[in-house]
Design goal:
Layout (H helix, E strand, L loop, with lengths): L1 E3 L2 H13 L4 E6 L5 H13 L2 E6 L9 H6 L4 H10 L4 E3 L3 H4 L18 H5 L1 H18 L3 E5 L3 H13 L5 E5 L19 H22 L5 H15 L2 E9 L13 E9 L2 E9 L2 H21 L2
Parallel strand pairs: 1-4, 2-3, 2-5, 3-4, 5-6
Antiparallel strand pairs: 7-8, 8-9
Helix pairs in contact: 7-8, 9-10
Bound molecules: pantoate (PAF).
Pantoate binds next to β2 and α7.
């Protein structure tokens, strides 16, 4: 694996493979790798001839100076993990390379950025994400770029900007990777003390509770949200939001009648964590099962 620092070096390294028709995959990251990042790299390795991982702690998307300063950084460790996962190129530019003096452009997605994370972290957060991701897609021009479902709203924002700006790339969203006890993997988890690590599990439990209740036939989201909030409160975490939303528009849902997303953000001590889970209602399961039956019938008919 080679580590490259400049846009020019990366473009030069990609020119030959691209001309030879090699499929290029990009995994944008901010480093501090864990199994979630590695799952994206491995997926890219399976699907692409050349895998680029970008490692850039993007100052533009941090709304709290302290969060940016304390964001975990260990490039040497990250580089050896990426090499182990089969990554070909690690693109690790410094801030001046990405934002040279005079940089004056912002990519801003409206609507879906204004709720949840956007409402709590401020407009600059998703502007920072959208701008840097647009730049990374322009710089590496991959066929596929990989992101995690853990940042569900970010994934939607990126999907929207790629569609709206006609960027020629496929966006693949990979499942959230969890610790053995269910806590969603996050680079921020290393900041949790032992007690906080236990408290953080309340986020997982709140989502599981909502998923169980929806699966058992509950439809009134207000009730599900109240129960989830009480689970979080009981654990002593500072909840920023627990909501049940349409998984495409992120609009709040009052009555479940199709697939929905439960989303949570909370502070555990000084660490802010987010997580989400798809809710499948009893009716969805029945519909999926009957559709599976119908398509099995169709394919059986087709093969006769
Ligand atoms: O999810 C992240 O790590 C970051 O938001 C991303 C997509 C690399 C942009 O800086």
């Amino acid at each position: 694996m080679r580590t490259l620092r400049t846009i020019a070096e990366l473009r030069t390294a990609l020119r030959g493979p691209r001309a030879a028709g090699v499929r290029i995959g990009l995994v944008p990251t901010m480093g501090a790798f864990h199994d979630g990042h590695l799952s994206l790299m491995r997926r890219a390795r399976e699907e692409c001839g050349l895998v680029v991982v970008s490692l850039f702690v993007n100052p533009a998307q941090f709304n709290e100076g302290g969060d940016l300063e304390s964001y975990p950084r260990d490039e040497q460790r990250d580089a050896s993990m990426a090499a182990e996962a089969g990554v070909d190129l690690l693109f690790a530019p410094d801030a001046e390379e990405v934002y040279p003096p005079g940089f004056a452009t912002t990519v801003s997605v409206s609507g879906i950025t204004e709720v949840l994370e956007g409402a709590h972290r401020g407009r600059a957060h998703f502007d920072g994400v959208a701008t840097v991701v647009t730049k990374l897609l322009n710089i590496a021009a991959p066929e596929i770029a990989y992101f995690g479902q853990k940042d569900a709203q970010q994934a939607l924002v990126i999907g929207r900007l790629v569609r709206d700006l006609n960027i020629d790339v496929e966006i693949e969203i990979c499942p959230t990777v969890r610790e053995h006890d269910g806590l969603a993997m996050s680079s921020r988890n290393v900041r949790l003390g032992a007690g906080e690590r236990q408290q953080a599990l309340a986020l997982t439990r709140s989502l599981q509770l909502a998923a169980r209740r929806a699966g058992a036939g509950a439809t009134e989201t207000e009730q599900l949200i109240t129960e989830a909030l009480s689970e979080l409160e009981h654990a002593g975490v500072q909840t920023e939001y627990f909501q049940i939303v349409n998984s495409q528009t992120l609009e709040p849902i009052t009555r479940l009648n199709g697939p929905a997303l439960a989303v949570v953000a909370a502070r555990v001590g000084n660490t802010r964590l987010i997580d989400n889970q798809q809710l499948t209602t009893h009716t969805d399961r029945l519909t999926t099962a009957s559709n599976a039956g119908a398509s099995a019938d169709v394919s059986a008919a087709g093969s006769q």
